[in-house]
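Hi again,

Forgot to attach this to my earlier email, sorry! This is the prediction with zinc ion bound. I've pasted everything inline since the attachment limit keeps bouncing my files.
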Amino acid sequence: MPTLVHDDDRPALRYGPNRDEARASKPPSADRQNNDECWMNEAIELARDMQGLVWPNPAVGCVIVNDGRIVGRGRTQYGGRPHAERVALNQAAGHAPGSTLYVTLEPCCHWGKTPPCVDAIIAAGVCRVVASLQDPDPRVNGGGFRKLRQAGIKVEVGPGAEEARETMAGFFHRIATGRPLVEIGERALAPSSIPRGFDAVVQSGERKLWLLTRGRRGETFAEGLEGLNDTFALLDQLGTRGLTRVYVSSSDPFAERLMTGAHA
Ligand SMILES: [Zn+2]
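Structure tokens for the complex follow:
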């Protein structure tokens, strides 16, 4: 069976309390924790903006905070590069020394097509890194945190983990299976709109399956349901395109085909 996730109403992102109020009513450690969650929410929002546009990398968001204000914002760029941390560090420039960097995924420590982000973070003089998740990629997998700590940077992992995992669920599913995560839901969608957090919408007609992706016009990508006898192959096709999270309306006949089994 393809992986299906039903569409629950997700709670709105929780923002931290007004910082003055927090200071007045809570001990310093709780205050900082609330601020961390608040800043991390900004980073998660940045990541959400790029979902579906950054394959072969996950959509990551990053904000750099110095003296209580954001001095740099970054998100993974189209096609996966540059990474979010690079973009944010470039924006922060001279304001980076002494700052805290919030990022939704562990910074990379390996040479890919770009140099490691941890080197740039260390060189910029960031003094604290808060990350939502450790990167399970075997080339990183804690190595980024280790290198930052070795350089004397304080590292904390966990704030915003649930929301960050949600932004990357499709990416990790695509890595594991080669197919996008398919979600069947009951949202009322405007024509040609894609719900936030999804890469694409699939709609079916008698003679075609219609694929709507971000930044592109909709296109026919397969014959209609009548001739469709292997939904696995179809999901493979979507995965090959780099789609990680696809939305199908529960009222669409394609949803029923997905739920009744991959093979007709
Ligand atoms: Zn990186």
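The CA atoms of residues 104 and 132 lie 5 Å apart. The pocket of zinc ion is lined by residues 83, 85, 107-108, 117 (CB under 6 Å).

That should be everything now.

G.
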